[in-house]
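Re: dinuclear copper ion structure - here you go.
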Amino acid sequence: MHTTPMVYTNNLNLDLLLASALPVLEPASKDAATISHLFLTVFLICLAILFVVVGLICVSLMRFRADGSRLPKQNFGTHRSEVVWAMPPVAIVIALSVLSAKVIVSDEGGAAGDAELVVVGHQWWWEVRYPAAGAVTANEIHIPVGRRVRVRVESADVIHSLWVPQLGPKKDMIRGHPNFVWLEADRAGTYEGACSEFCGDQHAWMRFIVVAEPEAQFKLWLTQQARPSENPPSESAQAGRNFFFAQSCANCHAIGGTSAKATAGPDLTHLASRRQLAAGLLDNTSANLTRWLKNPQRIKPGCQMPNFGLNDTQLTQLVAYLEGLR
Ligand code: CUA
């Protein structure tokens, strides 16, 4: 489940470490379960091999210690020994290949066709589109519980990889070469996802969440996301809006219902409805949004959002406007 991102702390949190290692063993879909079983099967086979090898080494060490008095019997060119060495590993490799191939085929998303959801990887955030509904958002995917959603994955720049350990396989996101994958959750909840292909400085902070909710709730969310933005609720927010368009914000960001239509940065139409900022780095609160706008380069060094050197009044107004984008 979703935990608060650790920012500016460096004490080792064992719970968090375990929680981030366990998702693969807590699958929430059929596809993820087949991967989980494969992982466990391979792990147990490897563990058995480890025990056999370590056991043989220990026996040899104890029986033939280097006192020079007892050398083991030396055999050269024995056909039988070579067959005994070679056959079990070959059998194990074939068995592992067959098991893996079966899982790969069963989780395959196909090579073409329609997709309900399009996810585009950017350095370092996720563009999320629902073409039929006309909704665009970022870093937060919603899906209905219990229904397989076909996802087309693409990239706007380098190679990324979409991965939600509890929901399914990884899928590479390649510019000019769309790939397809299924997302499905058996139970409602929030599932963490991450980029699993090294894509630059902030690869580690290219995260997202998948919110699986009942179909009716999902439809409601989708309808809301497809709506244009609302007018600023207060004078301060109005000032923030003016500031947004006076600055170069609109060169990179889109806000539905306004003249801002750029797609280089995340769509902000319903920014305030999202749970996190900066692709999973911060919880979406006023304080964090202010910190982010004050100097994005300090929080996520190397990201595409420049430091505009805003003063406190500008920050307050901009945050008032962005927080009204529900
Ligand atoms: Cu995108 Cu790693």
